Amino acid sequence: MPDSSRAVGRVHKILRKMEEAVEIPPGQALGDHGRCAVEDRDKAEAFNRTYANVSRQVRAKRQDTKTKAELRTLNGRECQCGGARSGVCSPFSLQELEAQLPNMKCRKAPGPDDICAEHLRHLGPVAKAALLRLMNQTWASGLTPSAWRRATIVPIPKAGKDPKLTSSHRPIALTSHLAKLAERLVAARLTHVVERDDLIPCEQVGFRRGRSAEENLARLVQRVQDGWNRPKPRGKPVDGKTAEKFALLAFDFSRAYDVIDHRMLRLKLLRLGVPKCLTNWVWAFLRDRRAAVVVNGTRSRERPYRAGLPQGSVLAPTLYTLWAADLITALRSVPGTEIFMYADDTATLSSGATIEQAGRRAQQAADTISAWADRWKMRVAGEKTQALVLSQWARDASRLSIRVAGAEVTGGTTLRLLGVSFDRLLHFGAHCNELRKKVRPRTAHLRRMTGRSWGLTERQLRTVANGYVRGALEYAAGAWLPAASESHLTLIDRELRAAARVVTGCLASTPSHALMAEAGLPTAHMCRDIRAARQLALAASLPAGDPLRTLADSSPPRRLAATLGWRDRGREMFARLSPGGEPLIIEERLHVSAPPWQDGGEVSFHLDVGPDGSRDRPPELRRRAAEERLESFPADATWIWSDGSAEEGVHRGGGGALIVTHDGATREVRVAAGRLCSSTRAELFALRAALEDLTSTPDRDTARPIIICLDSKATLALLKNGPAAQRTPVAADIWKALQGISATGQPIQLQWVPAHCGLPLNERADGLAKEASALPQEDTPIDVTTVTRAAARSASARWREAWPDGWHKEIWGSRLPGPVEGEDRCSAIDVHQLRAGHWSCSEQYLHRIGRRPSPECEQCDSVRCPAALCRVCREEADTPRHVLLRCPALAGRRLARVGTIHPTVTELQDDGVVAALAAGFRAQLSRLATPP
Question: CATH fold of 603-780, please?
C-alpha cells in the first residue's frame, strides 16, 4: 500500500467499519409501533413517518400567542443596514465564495439534485460568476430554492442496537451541496456577528472557533478541586468559606435539534440583535422542508418536516447555540451554580457547605431548566438525567435526590459527561477502565493490519496508532489526566505499550522505555504534563472575565496535597520552560476575526520564483531566478525585506526588516519575538513591525507600490488565506496594516525569495533578525501553540534523561529513533528488536524465557550458560551486542556497511546497518540448518 495520507485514510475507514460493524440479515423485517414492515417501500415509509412525527409542529396556544405578538413588533423594525444592504447584509463577494469552496467536503454523497462537491470545487471563472449571482439572488430576496429544502434520508443501523426497530437507526440526510455552500457563506457572516457582539455566553463552548468540550470539563474539575481545598470546617460549615460539596447534574434534552420551533427561533435571533436580513434568509431556509427516505434503493413519499434544524446542516450548530443562549442567562440566577454547555449537552454544578445545600441549589437549577424547556416547546428527559455527588465524604454519596421533569433522579457512582466518566473523588478510575475497554478492540484491529512479514509501512502504523489508539486515550485529557492517580496512569500506559508492540513488532518483555521510543509514542506521564501545560495556556489566552480564565489566574491555598489538577501541573511545566523564574506571558487569542465580507484590497501574493528557485538547485541558480523575478517589479517602489530568526528554531525569536524607499534611503527595524518562538512566528513579528514602521512614518509616499520580500513560504501561505481566515493577533494585525495601506491606493505585492542564496538585502534582513533575537524577550507574549510544543520538547527530554543505563541508551543517548525507512516489515521488526535488546532470533533470549531448554539447564538468564551460546560462532551468548558488534561471522558485513569490523555503538542508529547485520545473521543460521 503506498505511503500517503490517502492510504492512511483508507486504513482509518477500514478500522472504523471493523469497530462499528453491524450484521443485518437480508430481508430483515422492521417493527414500527406494533406494525411489521417487510417490503422495502413499507420500511422507507415507516422510517419517514417516524422521523417526520418527531419534527412536527407542536401547538401551544399560550406560547404561540406570546411569540407571534413579540414577532410582530420586532418584524416591524428596520434592519441594521437601513435597507442599504451594507456590512453583514451586503452581497457576497467572489473572495468569500472562493474562500468557502475549498471547505466543501469531497467524496460525499450528493443530495436530490445530484450535484457533488467536486463539481463546485472545480468550476471555472465563468461558472463561479454565475454561481455567485445565484447566491446573491437568494441572499437579496430572502428566498431559497425549493430544491435546497429537500433531503434524501438514508437510515444507518446503530451499533449495538436492535436492527428490527426504526428507533435503532440513525438518519443520514443527504442535502444539496449548493445549499451547503450557501449555508457556509451565511454561517461565516453569522459567526462573525456572534463573535463581534458576544451573543453567546462564554459557558457555551460548543461549535465555537477555538473552544472545545475539554475546556468545560477542565473548568469543572478545577472548580471542584478548588472547593475541596478550602479550609476544613472546625464547627458549623459556612457557605463560601469552608470546604465545599457539589452536586453535578447532566441533563438530556429529548430530540433537541429536531423539535426547535422555527417561529420561536426567529424570535430569539431578532431578540439577540442578529440582522433582520440574515434572520429572514434563515427563516426562509428552514421553512417548508421536505424529505424522503431511501431503503435499499426504494424511495418513500416526501413528508413535510415542520420543526427542527436540518440534519447535516452547516448552520444548525450555530443556530442551536443562539437558541440556548437565554437558558444560560436563566441559570446564572441560581445561587452557587455554574453552567457547562456544549451545544445541547447541559450540565450544572451546584456547590454548598453541606450536601443538602448543594442539593437544594441543584433542584433549583433543574426547575429552571424544566421551566425553560416548557416555554420553548422542548422536553427534558428526566429519566436520562444523571446526578453525582462530588465530595470527600463517602456518606454524602447517597444523600442526593433531585426531581427533574417529574422523574426522581438519585446520585450514582459515576456520571458520564461529554465522553468522560466522573467519579465521586475525581480519580477517574472508572474512566480509565472504560478507555481500556474501548481501545483494546482498536489495538486488535490494528494488529490485523500488519504481521511479521506483511502489512502497513511503519510510518503508516505510527500514524494510525497515534490517531486511532492514542487519540481515543487522550480525548479531553487536558481536563482529567492531570487529576488521575498514578495507578490509573499505569492503565493508560499498558494500552499505549500494546499499541507500541504492534507498531514495532517488539516482544512483550521489551523494556518499556525502549519500546515506546522505538514506536515514537509518548508515555502517559508525558501526555499528562503536555496536556496540562496546553490547557493552562489555552485558559490563559481567553479574554478576561471568562470563568476558565479566572480559574487559571487564581491561586487559592491548597489543603489536600494529593488533589492536583491541570492548573498546578501546568504551572510546574511553565516553571521548567522558564528556568530564570520569569513568568510566561500568554498571548490572548484572537476573539473577533476580520469581517468575511471585507475586501482584502489590492494585495497579491507570489510564492515562487520559477522552477530554478527550488531547494535542490544550486544557490547561484536560485539567486539568479530570484533576481529575474524581482526585476519585473517597479524599480521606484518601496521595498521591504523582512526575516525572522530563532535559536535552534525554537528559542529567543527575533524579527528584522529593511525598508528601502524609492530614493535609496533605508531604515532598519528590529523586534523581539519571544523567549519561546518558531521561525514562522518570528517572520510574522518582523513583517508586522515593518508595516507599523511604514504606516507611522509622517509624510510617507503613498503614490508608489510596495514590494515585500520574505524567505518564508509558510508565512506567505498563511497570510494568503485572507484576513478573515487569520487566527492569531499577529497575522490579523498584519492584514489590518495591509488593508490600511491598500485603502490609500497603493498596490502591495508579497514575494517569496529563496533564503541563503546570496541576495544582499535578504542577507541584511537575516542579520537584523539575528541581532533582534538578543533584545529583551520577557515582555513578549507567547502563543498557545508555541507553549505546547515547548512543553512537548521538555517532557520528552525529561523522559529521555530518566532512561536507565543499558543497551538502548548506549545506542541512542538522548536522541529519539525515527521510523525504520526503506526496509521490509520483517527487517524493520528485526531492527527494532535488536536495538531494544530483546530479539526473538536470539538463543540467549529464547533460553531465558524457557523456549530453548537444554538437558543441562531448562531456563536461566545467565549469558555464560552453554545453552545461550551463539549458534554461528559458539564464542559467547548471541545477545544483540554480540550479533551487531562482535560476532566474527558478520565481520565482512560490518566492513562492507561501515568500513570497519569494529563499528561504534552509535553507528547502529543507521537502520540499514542493523537490518543488513540481522539479515546476515539469519543467513548464517539458515546455512547451519541446511543439511550438507
Answer: Nucleotidyltransferase; domain 5 (3.30.420)
